[in-house]
Amino acid sequence: MPAGGPAYRVVAVSEALAERVRATRRSPGYGHPVHEEVATGYGPCRLCLRDFEVGVDRRLLFTLDPFHGLEPFPLPGPVFIHEAGCDRYPEYGGFPADVLSHGLTLEAYGRGRILRDEARATGAGVENVVACQLARNDVDYVHVRDTEAGCYDFRVERA
User: Choosing a second label site near 16 at 20 to 30 A (CA), which of 29, 48, 63, 111?
Assistant: First the structure.
């Protein structure tokens, strides 16, 4: 962790996963066809964690299991990335600014995909909720979800 940086890291989807989806037009782990469209909602892109410009940005919709590699219990759902390349959000960049304006559901999990806490927050209150959740000994990571759409945005872990 960089000196003076956050006590957590933001884990967006990997660049390798995004490139595989863009190249194959198939969902990782499931093989479902990827849907291509002009953005009809704000997103965010699960790689750069920036909002889509509605009516302008092209995006890819695919199925993702956010527990893959963490837990043996899958929970797949829909996510979007920019169709064209974009840079992955830096893990120690703090909480993504675009996402702070959304209503968020913060799901704190312990190993075994055991839900230990769930909270809803927006704006400046988000980072305080995440800090409290990660301070718990029974919490290993936090999934950030859009409250309105219910879909997975990214994971937060201790630094």
Answer: 111
Assess if residue 44 is contained within a domain: yes
Contact, 133 vs 95, CB < 8 A? no
Tally of structural domains, the chain: 2
> How many whole angstroms separate alpha carbon 56 and alpha carbon 153?
21
Which one-letter DSSP state was computed for residue 102? S
Strand-pairing partners, residue 146, are 104
Global pTM exceeds 0.85: yes
Evaluate whether 108 touches 133 at the Cβ level (below 8 Å).
yes
Place of tokens 């960089």: 2
| Per-residue confidence (pLDDT) for residue 73, from 0 to 100 | 87
Task: Please state the rounded mean pLDDT for residues 83-103.
Answer: 95
Residue 56 is part of which domain span? Answer: 8-82
Determine which of 85-89, 123-127, 135-139 has the lowest per-residue pLDDT on average: 123-127
Domain boundary among 51, 82, 113: 82
46 versus 6: the higher-pLDDT residue is 46
Euclidean distance between CA atoms 89 and 98, whole angstroms: 12
Burial of 86 (C-beta count, 10 Å sphere; 0-12/13-18/19+): middle
CB 126 within 8 A of CB 100: yes
**DSSP single-letter state for residue 88:** P
